Structures are given as structure tokens and as C-alpha cells.
């Protein structure tokens, strides 16, 4: 349920894209990224289109990593898409990298995007870690079209008892890569956080505590007028010896849209600044559990009213073949102009028939605010995926070029993607 004026990021669920997806990470994932795999399989208006086939090649040679993805789409889209990613090992755990994407479709002919990034890890006095990351990227639709860019710098101090990070972004108004996801354009963004994770002397029950002094994400337009902000403090966080986690968060948020915007039918946010406060509690079950439970509840102010949301997630796993998840979400919003209650149910099942054959089934149901106009709606999708054997790259003497080699995966979609 999206109750903001910004596009909502949906994580990828299709196994063909999720396996080995880290190689294609570039820029800020979930916020401003050049490649967002869910663009493949969706038409310009957001409706699913056919994917005739897809090819993915990824792996490692001596000191280098490479990833290549090529995939056409059919129906009304009739597009050709390609992604290339390379990384060169640097300073042991760091890298120097580059990435490029190409999408050629009727609505955006020869849309190109490309950029460079680096990750420079250092060990400072006392054996503490310090990491400097940065990227610069640009996009252009056809030759001679305007160019938009994204520039980002991060300084991170990730260590056992403390993690301090500061990041700064500039996103040009024209930065809109055809295969990417950009939450907000034409902005400067300052974000970061300071967290401490002390460990108790007696660890019979608690493995460590987690305290966030302040996590922040503040956005200005290109003329440095405050546009939106999110501040969060975690006064209490606990990780148990079992792996379960419990936390309490206190949030303060601000939004000042440039023009009136509609959150949901009957509720319009005026172009003026609003501050509000919220509180959130979370419980996350240990990853190793056969049956894992996650619970989240939040409530508080919301623009000129109030909102509450409760979500529960249940995951059951039987190694190595079966994985099933069930998610339930209930949202209640009451503003001065209007109010609504929405319930959402999501189901997913994965069955590995063999190491090379996997089946995925998805279902999603939502009861929207007005059941008379739009009753309970359901959609579902299934996928069967077959992998060809690995292709290893070696030298003539039979010694393999690298332990990881190169893996090639070919998938043919049996149904429309979503």
C-alpha cells in the first residue's frame, strides 16, 4: 500500500533475476538505480508483456567480475534490452567498476545509460574499517537528446560496535534511465545514520543490543528548498541468542510537495509543509527457523490525520525443495478529508524439482477502500524455469581459469511476467 507521492519499489521475485543479482547492483538500491529488473516484462503503461527468452552470463576471471543480461520483450512493447556490468578487484576487498544499459523500444529509441563506481576499503588505526564509495552515471535517449546525471558519495565506518555512515546524492531532473528506478529526480539528498551494537558481558539470552542515535534522509530540490525528510531513532533493539530480533523505532517525517497531490480518492495533500510523528515496533524471527514469523506494527500522525498499519509474514521452509510465504497487511488511514481501510494478502510458493528445474507460484489479493466500486481483487502468476549446465572457462592445459568460472543461464517464460 503506497501512501506517499513517490513511486513504490517492489523487490524482484522471479528466480531468473534474483540469482546472482548482486553483480548488477549500481548506485543506491531501492532509491536511485540504473538497472531495475522489474522493468523487463512490463510495458510502458505497467501491463505485463511477453518475454520470449532471456540470457544471463555472469562469473569471475582472475581479478575481474562480469555480468551480462540480454532479453527482448514482445506484444506491444517490441523492445530489445541489454545490461553489462564489470568489476575489477582493487585494494583486496574493494573494486573499480562500470555499468551500461541499453533499451530500444518504440517509446524510447536507443535509450542509453552508463556510469562508473568504486569501493575503496581501508583499515585505519586500531584495525577499524573505513569505506569510501562513489558513483557517477548519465543517461540519454537517442543521439542529441538531453543528458541527465546522478552523482553519489558515501563515507562509511562499519565496525563491530559502531556503524557511522554519511551519504550525499545529486539527481538531475533529466536522470530517468529506461531500465532503472528513480524515486525522486531534481534533488539533493543527504542521508546517513549512527548506530551502536554493544554486546552484554553475560550472553545467556541476549547476543547484542542495537541502538540508533539518529538515522536521517533529508531531501532538497536543486534550489536547496526543503522537500521531504525522514528522521528515526531506535531507543531499543535486541538480538537474541536464538537469532530473533526485537526493536522499537520513533520517527519524525516531513513532506512539502511542490503542488497539490492525491494520496487516495478523496484525500489531497496541499502544497505546504507538514511534520508528523510515529512509532513502530518490529519482531523478526531467526533466519534458520523452519517456520519463521515476522511482525510489524506502526501508528501515529499522518499529514492532518492519523494512520496505523499492521503486517505479519509467515515463511515455511523444508530443505531443500519447498519454500512457502504468506504476508498479511492491514492499513487504516483517517485524514480530515477522507479515510479508508485496506487489507492485502500475498502468497508465494517455490518448489525445486531438481537442481536445474524450479517452479514458482504467486498470488496477491487486495480489498481496496471501496468494496462496492472495486470488490476483492486477485491476481496470480506461475513460472517454470530450466537452467542449462554451467559453462566453465579454462586453459588448454585443463587448469581452470578461476574457481568460480562463468555461468550461463537461459530461461524461457511460460507465462506473462509481472
Describe the structure.
This protein has 418 residues and is an all-beta fold. 1% of the residues lie in helices and 59% in strands.
SS field, number of helical segments? 1
What fraction strand? over 45%
Give the SSE string: HEEEEEEEEEEEEEEEEEEEEEEEEE
Overall, the morphology is globular
Q: Give me the count of strands.
A: 25
Give the overall pLDDT as a whole number. Answer: 82
First and last CA, distance: 17 Å
Which key terms come to mind for this protein?
single chain, 418 residues, mainly beta, 21-stranded antiparallel beta sheet, globular, disordered C terminus
Give a quick summary of the entry.
The chain is 1% helix and 59% strand. The protein has 418 residues and is an all-beta fold. Residues 369-383 and 385-418 have low confidence and may be disordered.
Q: Layout of helices and strands, plus pairs?
A:
Elements: H1 15-18, E1 32-33, E2 54-61, E3 64-73, E4 79-90, E5 94-104, E6 111-124, E7 128-141, E8 147-158, E9 162-171, E10 181-182, E11 187-196, E12 206-209, E13 211-221, E14 226-240, E15 245-255, E16 261-264, E17 267-269, E18 274-284, E19 291-302, E20 305-318, E21 322-334, E22 339-354, E23 357-367, E24 377-386, E25 406-411
